[in-house]
């Protein structure tokens, strides 16, 4: 009963902070740099809070490598992230899929493909957030797994997470409008989970200090009985090089390219200068949250040597030591770590699904056109849709050891966007054909080498391919592709998927030459965000009197916007564009001024339905 009360109190505080932040945006903007860095700590999920200790019990310091990689990624890629923040503001990008679409010809196909791959790749990661929330609740409440409540706990968790996501993050139609309150709540939750981890780690280490000292000094091994009962060899073994390097890469790229990180780090960022501050602030955070991983893992091996599920040692040790208050606090810390990830991830996935899957479907089917004015409700419904898939996946996969591996599998899926993203920012010749081909090939190899084996091992698919290879060819064994057996399954999937992805991206982009209009669009990514075609128009139209009536264009723009929002809101956004391009007093404009107005109208509409859909809507309207 006490755990229920504490959980309700935590949720009420979370909502109170979110509401407080929304009502006092100016006040909290003074601390926006710290809030930004702490909100980026959504990177540290329950996989960090619980899973690192479990993995350290079998892999020593290797799990920490992913955070070392993330630190290096922040340092190396900070200038690119700052550039992405500027481009996001220019294009009103709502998500990673939308940003990539804006770079590659406003392609709806690319945006839809990225959204589908994100959905397939991130659902397993959402699953490993739901699993510890359920398991830890059962531990602290000592609820019988056979009880009716325990059997339906996953449904309750999904409903709660859906409601929190909608009320905290899906309140506005335009996701590019900053959620100051939600970011503040995420920052406070990050501080809370860090404080809980440090306090719990310190208490456990202090309580079992003598035993840990014996282990570290080696005196414990003098007892043959203890030596047979417990296995401390793992804590002195060097890490496997392939896994070490793979996790470094996953961390370095994942800190930027994971959908939730892109949303918090780019979409929600109000000032590119915050990125520089985050380099040391978030790095310090990740150092602290890994401080007691090894001591707690050693303590768990000493106190609970026969515990089959090492992931929950941070909670099981206080329970074993009869520390109910500490156990309840650890449960809340783990809940905060898992719930924040679910909220942000589901929110950004719902934006992708709505803008790049549902909106094109609505536009192609005239019977569904009435849904254009209900897009906010569609986005909210997509939250339930996504989390229902998570629930289904959780029940199909079951709560087994495979869930430990799903985090890295999701990371590898999302890393397939890295060549197109970074290549698009650094290489002018990168084009849609190369980006799409690379992503398709890389994602296909990822699915075959990572996802497919989990389906076989969980019993969802009966196949001997993982032992004999496709068509019985040993070179096509998923986890040792092309006969290379020296790599771990994770390293195998990462190496081959990215290798083929990058090769296809470079080769196809070099082979297919984009035409002049495409190069002009791409120039925005390289020429200080001033569109080349509009600049050219200004050069030829300076001093040319206006001949286009602005009232007609304004009315058409309002009609377009009214399809997706109220007439009042549509008029407000169009007036905003007119004011932004200094046309509020004009009655007639020339072609250059019209081009600037259309550009602004497209970008603002992109905040509602995505750049690809906005570009097509404006183009088809004849504006």
Briefly summarize what is shown:
The chain is an all-alpha fold and 623 residues long.
How would you sum up this structure, described in words?
74% of the residues lie in helices and 1% in strands. It has 30 helices and two strands. The protein has helices at residues 2-23, 25-29, 32-40, 46-59, 65-91, 96-103, 108-141, 148-151, 153-169, 180-207, 209-217, 224-229, 241-257, 259-267, 273-289, 293-303, 313-320, 324-364, 375-397, 402-414, 418-426, 432-457, 465-468, 489-511, 516-522, 532-541, 550-562, 567-580, 591-609, 611-621; strands spanning 548-549, 588-589. Strands 1-2 form a two-stranded antiparallel ribbon. Mean pLDDT is 82; it is low at 220-227 and 530-542.
SSE blueprint and pairings:
Blueprint: H1 2-23, H2 25-29, H3 32-40, H4 46-59, H5 65-91, H6 96-103, H7 108-141, H8 148-151, H9 153-169, H10 180-207, H11 209-217, H12 224-229, H13 241-257, H14 259-267, H15 273-289, H16 293-303, H17 313-320, H18 324-364, H19 375-397, H20 402-414, H21 418-426, H22 432-457, H23 465-468, H24 489-511, H25 516-522, H26 532-541, E1 548-549, H27 550-562, H28 567-580, E2 588-589, H29 591-609, H30 611-621
Antiparallel strand pairs: 1-2
